[in-house]
Design goal:
single chain, about 325 residues, alpha+beta, 2 domains, three-stranded antiparallel sheet, 9 helices, about 45% helix
């Protein structure tokens, strides 16, 4: 999830767990605790982009990190706040529940979370949330704003938090339901359209959980398509995308390519943008949700010649969006 959502959820949980003892400091500690796993952003200062992609949501998002850092922070907190009346184990729980919630929220989107690092490089990604979903984040953010204004002695603080987290929880359940519904519709479409696929995934498009993006792998490439929960027809329009993996043969920096392949979980194609060789990770969708002719993929890494690969994840997400694309996007969400 995005940083603001983690901060808001962390502040709400902090208030709920320790607000009576810590007052509004509980919200600050909660927001800080939820942000700890994302401290891995510092690796971008010295790592190459492919290495940094794997470092993010790596060890600091693992169960082992959670088990190691929680008692350490608990010990430190008990030393800093000896008169609060919370023992070392209680502090470890306060930090631990926040870090656990951060890891839990992150597994729901497509990036992948290294829960089992360093023992396994497998990344957990349930693909039920876009990284920023306003209808999930709105409630804890509103609760954080209200709690910041209200006095710490206000009797209804816990009710505000329970209501906010309850709304977000219901939205999460709804998103999982939509995921299961879309997956059934997709597998049915494969049968009806006689498509033979090796594996596939579905994930929500930008800022919603109604319109879903589909990538199905075949022996020679991929089928890419979209399905709205509100669609009435059973067939899905798929676009065939050639893998063109042969374009990567002979590229000198095999370490970087290997890291990009691992990060993409095998869902990648090579292509040429004019004279530039590009590695595309299919998991992050297409620019403008495929609504314009010959869409490019949102995640692309320049291989040859060497061009800037800064902000590699973000640069394609909303490239080309204007009022006409937004109108077409909303219309597509409403189904066909």
């Amino acid at each position: 999830m995005d940083s603001l959502t983690h901060i808001a959820v962390g502040a709400c949980i902090g208030e709920l767990v320790a607000g009576k003892r810590l007052g509004k400091k509980a919200m600050v500690i909660g927001a800080l605790a939820q942000s700890i796993p994302d401290a891995d952003f510092v690796t971008s200062w010295w790592m190459t982009v492919p290495s940094d992609l794997l470092a993010h949501r790596g060890f600091t998002h693992s169960i082992l990190f959670l088990l190691l850092i929680s008692p350490i922070l608990g010990w430190c907190s008990q030393k800093v706040f000896p008169k609060i009346g919370i023992d070392r184990l209680g502090w470890a729980f306060i930090w631990g529940i926040q870090i656990f919630m951060h890891l839990f929220l992150d597994i729901f989107n497509v990036y992948g979370t290294g829960l089992f690092e360093p023992f396994s490089h497998y990344r957990v990604s349930l693909n039920t949330f876009f990284v920023l979903d306003p209808l999930f984040s709105l409630w804890p953010i509103m609760a954080l704003a209200a709690l910041s204004i209200l006095k710490s002695t206000y009797a209804g603080r816990s009710k505000i938090i329970v209501a906010a987290l309850g709304m977000s929880g219901l939205y999460m359940v709804n998103s999982v339901y939509h995921k299961l519904y879309i997956d059934r519709a997709v597998t049915k479409s494969f049968e009806l359209q006689h498509l033979h696929v090796e594996r596939y995934f579905t994930t929500p498009t930008a800022l919603n959980n109604i319109l879903w993006y589909i990538v199905a792998q075949t022996d020679s490439g991929y089928y890419v398509g979209y399905r709205s929960v509100l669609d009435r027809q059973p067939l899905i329009n798929y676009r065939s995308v050639a893998a063109q993996h042969e374009l990567l043969n002979g590229i000198a920096d095999t370490t970087a390519i290997g890291q990009l392949k691992r990060f993409s979980q095998g869902y990648y194609v090579a292509s040429k943008y004019n004279d530039t060789l590009v590695f595309n990770d299919l998991r992050f969708g297409e620019m403008t949700a495929g609504l314009q002719p010959d869409p490019r993929f949102s995640f692309y890494y320049y291989l040859q010649p060497r061009l800037s690969n800064d902000v590699i994840i973000q640069r394609g997400r909303f490239c080309g969006w204007d009022r006409h694309v937004v109108a077409a996007f909303v219309q597509r969400i409403m189904g066909k």
